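Request: Not sure, any thoughts?
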Amino acid sequence: MNITRIWQALSLMAAMVVSGTNVYAAPSVSQSPAEEIAELDKLLTQIDRALDAKDSLEPFLYATSALNSKIDVFEIRFGVPLQTQPQWEALRGKAEKVLKRVDGRHRNDIYFNADSAETGTCVLIELAGNPTTALKRLDQIKPGGGCGNWAASVMLAVNTQKAGIYQRKGDYKQAYASMKAARDDMVFALGAPASDLFCCRYAFLAGKNGEVEEAKKFYQRVVDLYPKTDGDQIARKALTAMGSLTEPDLQRIRRVYLEEKEIRDYDAAIFAIAGHKFPGAYDFLVEQLASAENFERNRLIPALGVLGDRRALPVLKKITQESKDNANTVHALVALARLGDREEVVPCLKRQLDAKSDIFFNGYWLDASLREIYGDGPERLEMGATLEMTPAKLAQRWLTWIESRKVPAVEQKSA
């Protein structure tokens, strides 16, 4: 497999299992079943439009994953099954029409396209009113290639979907078993679903199976690690009803999740400290950054952007100017933009014009990061074209766009 295909596969891993909520996202605005169904309808429209594009697979996967995520927590959020709602039939009919456009489209593609497309297609099969068929199709997915991370990523998507289907069929025992299998898959999967909702679903099913303490543990994990998310709202409500809610603070996060640096706990805990904006969070993150290993720096740097404390500006600027690590640099540019400062973007891009090595090893990621920084950008290219573009060419493309738009380097932001 050439390098373009490797990076495309990694991008699809993320798209296949990522859902619509993460540590950066605001909670859903819908506060009633009818409003949430309207959001589901919008996602179906988004999927239908994505299918018009030549390079449609990745947006199709992101949209179907977001759709599936909303369906999976519908009963947990609103206390009623989706299929009992009066808008269900219209939603089912629309899903059926979209399904006819995509089913089988990627069946003969290279294995990572075929595997990914099938997981997204099964979301539509169930929503179109055929859960038994969806389960059969999911059971038939056998990840191709020899990469264990790819296989785990595919099976994470498969088992997460199966858990949701069994839950909606009222088979909570089988649903819980599928969620346990999905938890095992997460150890090696390179993509991950929105952990707040995953943990809430796991807790909900644990409770349905009589494992109350396990349910409390995972609901509390959501409150601790995923502030201001959909899952945070769900978990707080559940724990309050159980009389078991503990409000987190910096000391609790450090004690429970950071004493042993298990990587997924470390990731979540660092962003939780920033997301909660605990007193002392800035000093703690900067102190950690001073002695951090490289993988830790790639969590601490973006966390400073999430925290939003402008005291981080000189720290982040120094990283963009002096770091020899490409990931550190890109993360620092995005973090600076979150603080309203884009001054270092153009100097960094200009340094790439004469670069003799591929400092930005993944042009697709760099392009996506720059689009996050500016909220816009040059005309989008197909994934493969972006992955194959040299750092110098990609930098020149963005420099031309920035100059043509006269984009200001600094935004006015409150402290």
